[in-house]
What we know:
Helix content: over 70%
Strand content: under 5%
Bound molecules: fe (ii) ion
Low-confidence stretches: none
Structural class: mainly alpha
Amino acid sequence: MGLVGRAVEQMIHFYRGDGSDIAHFLKVYALAQTIGRGEGLESALQETLELAAVVHDIACPACREKYGDTDGKHQERESPAIVEPFLRELGVPEAQVRRISWLTAHHHTYTGVDGLDHRILLEADFLVNSEEKGLSRAASEAAEGQIFRTETGKRLLRSMFPRDD
Ligand SMILES: [Fe+2]
């Protein structure tokens, strides 16, 4: 099994018993993979993106316990100490650990987007959160202007939240 496959299995084990956390990360992973492939990412960047999508919400259980919420700023504070040992245990190289840790800490940060891996992670997580919470037509239109930059992400947004125009 490749690195990403092992990360998926370990992440399911990490969330054991929590079907909604498991379903959420699997959806974000599938959409991030789809957007990355659609945008033709080279293989190392694609792997970093896919690993980041798998672990992006790793701090959520700890944040619910400590703060009673999964606020983006709380995740940013808590995630490095959890995600870095998780990735090292899987044998992820140190430079990639640091990049994925940064991405995990910034997956609610829409300003200063740094790199296609960051952009695609934001797009994939936005699509899944919108599917889970329900997205108004106005919010979908705003998102297309403010969040989505990749053509693949925009196509997925319009397929998942069709508009009549
Ligand atoms: Fe998420």
